[in-house]
């Protein structure tokens, strides 16, 4: 046992205490509460987006375990009984179903396998705990230690150092010798403070020359609350708040004693560092509104867990004021001397952030607060509250259900999220995090959850005696992160500065266009003549018997059309996609009853667009998921809807009417919008396949009709639009997930495109058939389920011929990306709703920014989707993104939509220029909100429309043909003139030469004119001089005397 401080030392401590008290009186609390008062970032600022960057050089990557959870060998080689051995063996706990840690992961015997697992991960550190009852079966560290235990830990440390793995050793991870619980009542008794100091001194002395990082204890909050307050953990005492406060007080004092012992006796020679692992949750104020009151509540919530232990050690040496106020007389107190030697007893901040604290945090929320797994904010709080200490995330991770086994897909994304939050805390907030330990290395005994949940990176089958370590997919992912030292930049972060082609469709997409006969201008349609006060009542009344001739109603009478189209034109877009209302035009489903007024309204819309030099893309059938008719005319729905072939024939008849009445003004038709979504309403698998079958036939008939009877005159392009979200394998390390993602795409897109286009590999013979992979899968599935045949219908030879090539362009509605995994078919999933046809599950990556409606913003997914379609179907047909957008609750400054627009179009540019995709259009969804701000480019309140900020951005992008920050000359100026005039086209292409030649020509002409001017001027001057001379001579002759000549006289 080490000697306590001498009298001179105590005198020095007293002097230091006076200084401390003076400083403490002058100090204010930490600045942690400022973390909630910072402006809330939108989900698209750099500190909210996933950060593609690497950690600082030398970052301490690691993994960890605890002794009781993994060692097993509970009574091997002289080990003593721990409180957890007793707790799991006794009737004190009836919630474990007699599960124990007797063997657990058997790390005591399989420790070399653990080291090998660390080598697989390529980590630089290993955090493990020493078993106090294994080293000292009777707990007394002043006696002889268990030699077998000392040898075991020495071998482990030596092996780690040999592998260049830094040991991070925890002295106490909850396995107190049972003898101390029996003798003293455990941590309720302050006698354990001295015993722990002695135990720590032994460990420092025995292993300290080889250990540079020490952790005195792990998450004392859970020991105090779960072990002695609620009894959920060992020793299972339900002592309530008073016991928890007492135990916490003794744990803090025990830690401080151990640190002081190391600092005084071992640090000079061993030069290591000592800390304590503290756990916490994170809390956000009600609805994210940071007022003084809500921030104070959040601060109190964190102080009640993390601050309870951190404030005495990292702060002022005493408990937070909020705790002392709340618990008053129940709260233990530190003596002035204790405050002095408790304060600053940690060389770095060691943090535990996992499910245990987050679960318990739910009990501490009030007034609408939310518990969130926001590790970045918690690290920022620690920096502000405790003066920017160096931080080790000593426990980071989540859990999976035991049934998940090795394919722990969800855990991958939680790991990705936690580690990226640490990276952002370093890069954006300046937090000094120097290491991260993924918890835990191997599956083990998970305390009160037994073996029902798993947290290991390596899977262990606890029914097998050899306890083989098998890497889970999280181990593969963590290995990749460690190897890359984070998340290095990839190709998606490289910007392309280029343009889309000049005939590119810049569009805005809407759903079914509402037919608004009112407001209506009666100026030329009312035959009456009116007069004021005709009847003496002061009102305007028609004059009886007087009528005027009127003209028929004109398009200008529909006041809503012009205002609506002016709104669209202000976006700068060239194309407007809208849908007709089939049930309005043909209420009975057939041409026996045609709503000519509705047709005239649509015709007016089209003629007004033409006047504005804008192009329409018109959808014939826009399915609605709303009852009762799903956008179909009532009689057709009543007769079976898309389950009936009669609807196919009715659609062909309807398409003929559209071509006949509106085809003059329409160059781009969509027959059916998102048939792959309308089939989702059918609960029966066979019905879904039959509905998809008939929808395809209806489109093909409409396409063939146009080709046969209208194309020669109208020259329009006809397609159908598919909902086309990208599918990414949920688990990149599992082939089954890759197969599932491909199957998802085939059922979503291939089901409709393959019969029309075939594939590049199958050539012509593949057209008119469903995807081969889809047919094989459904046949095998039918066999497994004992069905007589596949539910997939077959096309007749005539239908196949009708389908082949019945597509003028590929229209895709793309919004987001989904993570896809195969349906596991567990008992739970079988009891839920029937599985979709593709038999896949979808989930979201929590690191993707998302909208208020949960739509993930994944720009690169658009490029992946376009590339997949291009590779499968070739680039002969153009591809047009006929709808793409995101909901944004902002009424004006829609920053999320602006980010969406910039980033998605940047990926579209890459698809066009880098991947060679024949992309010819992009339509933004949609023009205007109806009520609250959502997808619209314009808000609409009280019949007043107001442009959001994204409108100006879209205009700028359109003006530069796709690049919002490209200052180069607009490439598509004078495009129409170029097409009409080949010479103009050549001149436009060779502008520099033309300009230079023009300048040279003008200069030459000016020089020639100057020469001519000079020559003429000189000639005029000579002529003028000659004239003057002649006039002078004449004058002189006129002034001379007259001479008369007479004939001679003879």
Automatic annotation (TrEMBL):
Compositionally biased residues, Basic residues: 1022-1039
List the residue ranges of the region (Disordered).
1022-1043
Q: What species is this protein from? A: Crenichthys baileyi
Xref: InterPro entries: GH, GH_1_N_CS, Glyco_hydro_1
Identify the PANTHER family for this entry. BETA-KLOTHO (PTHR10353:SF68), GLYCOSYL HYDROLASE (PTHR10353)
Q: What top-level branch of life does the organism fall under?
A: Eukaryota
A molecular-function term among this protein's GO annotations: hydrolase activity, hydrolyzing O-glycosyl compounds
Supply one GO CC term from the record. Answer: plasma membrane
Family membership:
Belongs to the glycosyl hydrolase 1 family. Klotho subfamily.
The record's annotation in SUPFAM superfamilies points to: (Trans)glycosidases (SSF51445)
Q: How does it sit in the membrane?
A: Single-pass membrane protein
Which PROSITE patterns does its entry note?
GLYCOSYL_HYDROL_F1_2
A GO BP entry is:
carbohydrate metabolic process
Q: What is this protein called?
A: Beta-klotho
Question: Where does it live in the cell?
Answer: Cell membrane
The membrane spanning regions, by residue number, are: 993-1016
Q: What Pfam families does the annotation carry?
A: Glyco_hydro_1
Residues of the signal peptide: 1-27
Keyword Glycoprotein in the entry? The reply is yes
Asked if the Swiss-Prot or TrEMBL record annotates the protein with the keyword Transmembrane, the reply is yes
* Coarse class of the protein's main subcellular location: membrane
Record keywords, A-Z: Cell membrane, Glycoprotein, Membrane, Repeat, Signal, Transmembrane, Transmembrane helix
């Amino acid at each position: 046992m080490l000697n306590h401080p001498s009298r001179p030392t105590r005198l020095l401590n007293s002097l230091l205490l006076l200084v401390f008290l003076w400083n403490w009186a002058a100090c204010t609390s930490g600045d942690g509460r400022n973390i909630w008062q910072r402006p809330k970032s939108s989900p698209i600022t750099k500190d909210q987006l996933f950060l593609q960057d690497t950690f600082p050089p030398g970052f301490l990557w690691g993994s960890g375990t605890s002794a009781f959870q993994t060692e097993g060998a509970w009574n091997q080689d002289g080990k003593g009984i721990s409180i957890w051995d007793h707790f799991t063996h006794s009737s004190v706990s009836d919630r474990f179903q007699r599960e124990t840690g007797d063997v657990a992961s058997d790390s005591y015997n399989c420790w070399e396998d653990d080291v090998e697992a660390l080598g697989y991960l390529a980590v630089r550190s290993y955090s493990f705990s020493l078993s106090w009852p294994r080293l000292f079966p009777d707990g007394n560290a002043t006696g002889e230690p268990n030699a077998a235990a000392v040898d075991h830990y020495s071998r482990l440390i030596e092996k780690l150092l040999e592998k260049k793995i830094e040991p991070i050793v925890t002295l106490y991870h909850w396995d107190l010798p049972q003898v101390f619980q029996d003798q003293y009542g455990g941590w309720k008794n302050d006698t354990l403070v001295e015993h722990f100091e002695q135990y720590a001194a032994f460990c420092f002395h025995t292993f300290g020359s080889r250990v540079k990082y020490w952790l005195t204890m792990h998450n004392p909050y859970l020991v105090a609350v779960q072990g002695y307050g609620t009894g959920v953990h060992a020793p299972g005492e339900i002592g309530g708040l008073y016991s928890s406060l007492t135990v916490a007080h003794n744990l803090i004092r025990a830690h401080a004693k151990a640190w002081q012992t190391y600092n005084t006796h071992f640090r000079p020679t061993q030069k290591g560092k000592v800390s304590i692992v503290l756990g916490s949750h994170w809390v956000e104020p009600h609805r994210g509104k940071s007022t003084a009151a809500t921030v104070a509540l959040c601060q109190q919530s964190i102080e009640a867990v993390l601050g309870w232990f951190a404030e005495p050690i990292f702060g002022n040496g005493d408990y937070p004021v909020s705790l002392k106020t709340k618990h008053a007389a129940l709260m233990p107190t530190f003596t002035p001397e204790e405050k002095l030697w408790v304060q600053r007893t940690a060389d770095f901040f060691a943090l535990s952030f996992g499910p245990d604290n987050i679960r318990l945090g739910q009990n501490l929320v009030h007034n609408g607060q939310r518990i969130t797994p926001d590790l970045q904010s918690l690290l920022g709080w620690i920096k502000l509250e405790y003066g920017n200490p160096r931080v080790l995330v000593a426990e980071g991770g989540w859990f999976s259900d035991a049934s998940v086994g090795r394919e722990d897909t969800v855990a991958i994304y939680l790991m990705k999220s936690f580690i990226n939050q640490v990276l952002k805390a370093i890069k954006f907030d300046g937090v000094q995090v120097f290491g991260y330990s993924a918890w835990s290395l191997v599956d083990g005994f998970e305390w009160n959850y037994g073996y029902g949940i798993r947290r290991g990176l390596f899977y262990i089958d606890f029914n097998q005696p050899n306890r083989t370590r098998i890497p889970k997919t999280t181990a593969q992912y963590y290995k990749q992160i460690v190897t890359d030292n984070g998340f290095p930049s990839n190709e998606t972060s490289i910007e392309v500065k280029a343009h889309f082609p000049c005939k590119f469709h810049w569009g805005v997409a809407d759903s079914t266009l509402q037919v608004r006969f009112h407001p209506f201008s009666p100026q030329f349609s009312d035959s009456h003549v009116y007069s004021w006060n005709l009847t003496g009542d002061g009102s305007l009344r028609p004059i009886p018997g007087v009528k005027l001739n009127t003209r028929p109603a004109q398009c200008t009478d529909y006041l809503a059309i012009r205002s609506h189209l002016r709104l669209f034109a202000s976006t700068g877009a060239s194309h407007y996609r809208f849908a007709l209302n089939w049930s309005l035009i043909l209420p009975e489903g057939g041409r026996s009853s045609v709503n000519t007024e509705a047709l005239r309204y649509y015709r007016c819309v089209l003629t007004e667009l033409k006047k504005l030099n804008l192009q329409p893309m018109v959808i014939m059938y826009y399915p609605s998921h709303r009852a009762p008719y799903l956008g179909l005319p009532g009689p057709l729905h009543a007769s079976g809807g898309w389950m009936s072939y009669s609807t196919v024939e009715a659609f062909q008849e309807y398409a003929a009417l559209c071509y006949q009445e509106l085809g003059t003004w329409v160059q781009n038709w969509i027959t059916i919008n998102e048939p792959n979504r309308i089939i989702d309403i059918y609960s029966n698998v066979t019905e879904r396949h039959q509905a998809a079958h008939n929808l395809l036939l209806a489109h093909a008939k409409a396409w063939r009709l146009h080709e046969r009877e209208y194309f020669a005159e109208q020259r329009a392009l006809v397609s159908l639009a598919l909902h086309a979200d990208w599918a990414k394998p949920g688990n990149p390390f599992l082939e089954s997930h890759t197969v599932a993602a491909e199957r998802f795409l085939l059922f979503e897109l291939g089901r409709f495109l393959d019969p029309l286009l075939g594939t590049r590999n199958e050539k012509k013979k593949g057209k008119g058939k469903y995807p081969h992979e889809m047919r094989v899968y459904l046949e095998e599935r039918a066999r497994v389920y004992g069905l007589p045949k596949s539910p997939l219908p077959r096309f007749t030879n005539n239908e196949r011929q009708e389908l082949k090539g019945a597509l003028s362009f590929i229209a895709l509605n793309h919004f987001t990306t989904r993570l896809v995994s195969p349906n596991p078919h567990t008992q739970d999933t079988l009891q839920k709703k029937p599985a979709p046809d593709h038999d896949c599950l979808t989930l979201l990556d929590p690191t993707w920014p998302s909208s208020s409606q949960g739509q993930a913003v994944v720009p690169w997914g658009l490029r992946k989707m376009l590339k997949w379609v291009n590779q499968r179907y070739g680039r002969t047909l153009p591809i047009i993104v006929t709808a793409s957008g995101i909901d944004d609750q902002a009424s004006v400054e829609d920053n999320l939509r602006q980010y969406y627009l910039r980033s998605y179009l940047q990926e579209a540019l890459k698809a066009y220029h880098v991947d060679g995709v024949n992309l010819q259009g992009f339509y933004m969804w949609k023009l205007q909100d109806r009520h609250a701000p959502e997808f619209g480019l314009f808000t609409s309140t009280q019949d007043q429309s107001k442009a959001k900020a994204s409108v100006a951005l879209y205009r700028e992008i359109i003006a530069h043909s796709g690049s919002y920050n490209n200052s180069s000359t607009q490439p598509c100026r004078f495009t129409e003139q170029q097409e009409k005039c080949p010479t103009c086209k050549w001149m436009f292409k060779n502008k520099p030469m033309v300009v230079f030649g023009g300048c040279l020509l003008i200069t030459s002409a000016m020089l020639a004119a100057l020469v001519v001017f000079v020559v003429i001027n000189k000639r005029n001057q000579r002529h003028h001089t000659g004239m003057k001379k002649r006039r002078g001579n004449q004058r002189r002759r006129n002034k001379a005397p007259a001479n008369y000549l007479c004939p001679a006289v003879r």
